[in-house]
């Protein structure tokens, strides 16, 4: 699956790397100060000293766990068909780094920072991630950067004061991004896996934070009003990567009803073991619901790449 160019780096290394290239990426991200400070950044609810609520570091670990489950399932299918498998070290590196440039308080903070920095090119979370991982102190492989790159257009250096936030990459990163775009003519499989894992994590674990933020009775009322279901459906169905999933809305509705019917009592129990059981079951149910789609899509990507 992986070619020599996948493992190349933007800057030459001063010393020979004694471990695999993707394992090296994983270790560099894991030891990065930018990764460690994610524990100070809130994920959804702005109460950083409440240990019942998640921060960006915990979110990144959860995305990594979900991405690993998805990758293992895809790899099992690839092995059965004598196809090359996905490197888990690369998945670890990219999942740990996927939010490394994101501010606390999510998209509202992103918009605020963009307004402040508009006359200097603005601020965009994924652009900041690409800027960080291409620094000489990280110097990760092309394949890892490709897995993290979400937007393929450059953000203008100067914009009108009333201009909205632009999704893209910074002009200063152009030399790196241009090399990625020249090397890869389509998104790499790891990008899809990480995005899917991120969306599943946001859909499920953010609900857990809402339980911690609201009283359990309040949360149960909100859940029954279908407000949360509407938000999840809006977030997932608006993603163009999922447009080819048959009956996606029906799948999410069925899954949500199953959560309410079979797992809600454990979910709201206040007992760690029961909550953990419910969360694990919900994650697996979510992955099971989408497995046919992602196995078909990801294996097709591997097959096409192999032909080229």
From TrEMBL:
One of its GO terms (molecular function) is dGTPase activity. It comes from the Bacteria. The keyword Hydrolase applies. The keyword Iron does not apply. One of its GO terms (biological process) is dGTP catabolic process. Pfam families: HD (PF01966). InterPro entries: dGTPase, dGTPase-like, HD/PDEase_dom, HD_domain. Residues 56-203 form the HD domain. SUPFAM superfamilies: HD-domain/PDEase-like (SSF109604). Keywords: Hydrolase. This is Putative deoxyguanosinetriphosphate triphosphohydrolase.
